[in-house]
Amino acid sequence: MIEAALYIGFGSFGVALVMNLVALVRGPDPADRILALDTMVINAIALIVLFGMRAGSQVYFEASMIFAMIGFVSTVAFTRFLLRGNIIE
């Protein structure tokens, strides 16, 4: 039963990643593209967690935490670059 739920989750988050890729390409505004990238990071984290559940290994959960921290910092840095033109003051 859990295997079926995992495969449904893989499919759902995979479709969400493709939809976010379309939003990234078609985004009329840089802010929309930043939101699409941030949502892609969140969906990738969910896929890593699902794969960790399927594999039964703790390593994937730690990798998802590192990926979440890098995604957050990169989103903040890119937004700051678009708003101010520089990242470090």
Protein model, in words:
α1 runs antiparallel to α2 and α2 packs antiparallel against α3. The protein is 87% helix and 0% strand. The model has no long low-confidence stretch (mean pLDDT 92). It is mainly alpha-helical and 89 residues long. It is flat, with a radius of gyration of 15 Å.
Quick rundown:
The chain is mostly helical.
Segments where pLDDT lies below 50 for 5+ residues?
none
Radius of gyration (Å): 15 Å
Largest sheet: none
Whole-Å distance between the termini? 53 Å
The SS-based structural class is mainly alpha
Outline: flat
- Please tally the helical runs, counting DSSP H or I stretches of 4 or more residues: 3
Q: What is the count of β-strands?
A: 0
Order of helices and strands: HHH
Approximate strand percentage: under 5%
Classify the helix fraction into a percent range. Answer: over 70%
Average pLDDT rating: 92
Topology at a glance:
Blueprint: H1 2-26, H2 30-55, H3 59-84
Helix pairs in contact: 1-2, 2-3
Keywords:
89 residues; mainly alpha; 0% strand
